[in-house]
Write the structure tokens for this entry.
Amino acid sequence: MDWTRLISDKRLGMEQFHDPRTTRLRSDFQRDFDRLIFSSPFRRLQNKTQVFPLPGSIFVHNRLTHSLEVSTVGRSMAREVWHRLSTRYEGKPEGRSLEQIPEIVAVSCLSHDLGNPPFGHSGERTISTWFSEGRGQGLRSELTPQQWADFSRFEGNANSFRLLTHQFCGRRKGGFAMTYSTLASIVKYPWTSLKAGEKGKFGFFASEEADYRKVATELGIPETGDGVFARHPLVYLMEAADDICYQVMDIEDSHRLGILSTDEVRSLLLAFFEPEQQRRMERAMGYLDDPNEQVGYMRSGVIGAMVGDCADVFARSEDKLLSGEAMPPLVRLMEPRLAEAYANCSQTAWSKIYCAPDVVDVDIAGNRILTYLMDSLMEAVLNPEKNSSKLLLLKMPRQYDTAASTLYERVQSVLDHVSGMTDVYALDLFRKLNGHSLPAV
């Protein structure tokens, strides 16, 4: 792969209008960013759970604030990378292309969670298990193996690519009509659901495979196996920004909620630094009386340290990245002190945060709500002639093709609707369908 092809501002669905000679004050990648900011799917992230229940008196992150922070960190990391690579490409065409990577990474980070359903990662599991363990099991014989794998391994990452590229009813060809480089740089798992393996991760549904192939061909991304592609190199930066933000910010949120003590968090975050730097930070925190401010100060330093080191790893690994060689996430290749401190944060998160009572309560409630909605909506779409189905279908947004010609597409219309719901909307619809809530008269 080479940067002059990997960086392309051609837009999916609008190829016939592409003019590479056009110069604008805003680049096409900036236009991608602005297009997302003003979109409904992005705004809905403010009412989708990240890890902890949506804010009451104590603010914690939701999908929207997480995405904004990941975008900020990703842009900073890409700038660090460009600074390291600029001397290698000074005066070369690749140099002009690389100047744009901060904008591309910022927008890919902004959109990486668009396809996630309500109620955090448990929402993905609930949708998947509706097919593998619930009423959806009966549909398996009517679907192809890949279509079944798409549903029984439902993946928020693949759903993000669909949300950006699919032509929903009333929408233009190409969906959001994003640039090719933006689309490629969000696909962390560039293979089909049949290649998902034990972790069940994949990057695009069967319905969007042709779109991904088109993007990969245009950018010169090689297919390394049947249905398996190399990653676009910028995916590693988006992934690293996400890894850094969710891990560190989950630690900070858990401190605000009293799940982790100040001493526990102090021990975890100071471990990222050498002894002399730890002492300087301790002195600086002596001027801060608020423990939350102390944690915020340490968190800022930790993110800065990891951003710089991940940029170093990326720059050192450029040849491997361009060759399409599969690499571990950048956070696992950081210098030993940082990698070990990050691993300790991850272990603490799994042992003390993700199993905390409030988190588990959201998982349980979300499972119950989404399972019921899947039961009801799928029944309506699969049996539209019933009176109850006709009433429920009136609640389905018109952009979802519930009367599509194939079973696969009809099922997808339900998943499009459910995955696009906010936590609040899903709960409200659950109550209404159960007769527990009526419009005010």
In short: Residues 291-316 form the longest helix (26 residues). The mean pLDDT is 91. Residues 135 and 375 are 7 Å apart (CA to CA). The first strand starts at residue 223 and ends at 225.
